[in-house]
C-alpha cells in the first residue's frame, strides 16, 4: 500500500543517515528508530514528517502530528 503511494520514496540507510541519527539522539535523546527516521527525512529534504509520536523532535524537518490533521 504505502510503497505505491504518490510522493513516497524508499531510501537506504547509509553511514550519512546513521551519523545524522547519532546527532539527533545526542541533541534530543530520541530512541534509535526515531532518530533514524527523522534523520533520514531531514537528509532527504522531506517537506514534513507525519507521525503519531508526540515525542518526535523537529530535527531539521517539520513534524506534523496526525491528530492535528482534519480528515
List the helices and strands and how they pair.
Elements: H1 15-28, H2 32-43, E1 49-51, E2 63-65
Parallel strand pairs: 1-2
Helix pairs in contact: 1-2
Task: Give a written overview of the molecule.
- The protein contains 2 helices and 2 strands.
- It has helices spanning 15-28, 32-43, and strands spanning 49-51, 63-65.
- Strands 1-2 form a two-stranded parallel ribbon.
- Helix 1 packs across helix 2.
- It starts with 14 loop residues before the first helix and ends in a 6-residue tail after the last strand.
- The mean pLDDT is 89.
Summarize this, please?
37% of the residues lie in helices and 8% in strands.
Strand order of the largest sheet: 1-2
For the biggest sheet, the summary is:
2 strands, parallel
How much of the sequence lies in strands comes to 5-15%
Low-confidence stretches: none
What keyword list fits this structure?
single chain, 71 residues, mainly alpha, two-stranded parallel sheet, 2 strands
Amino acid at each position: 500500500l504505502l510503497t505505491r503511494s504518490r510522493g513516497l520514496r524508499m531510501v537506504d540507510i547509509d553511514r550519512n543517515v546513521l551519523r545524522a541519527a547519532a546527532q539527533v539522539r545526542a541533541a534530543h535523546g530520541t530512541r534509535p528508530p526515531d532518530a533514524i527516521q527523522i534523520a533520514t527525512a531531514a537528509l532527504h529534504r522531506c517537506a514534513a514528517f507525519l507521525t503519531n509520536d508526540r515525542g518526535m523532535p523537529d530535527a531539521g524537518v517539520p513534524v506534523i502530528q496526525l491528530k492535528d490533521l482534519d480528515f
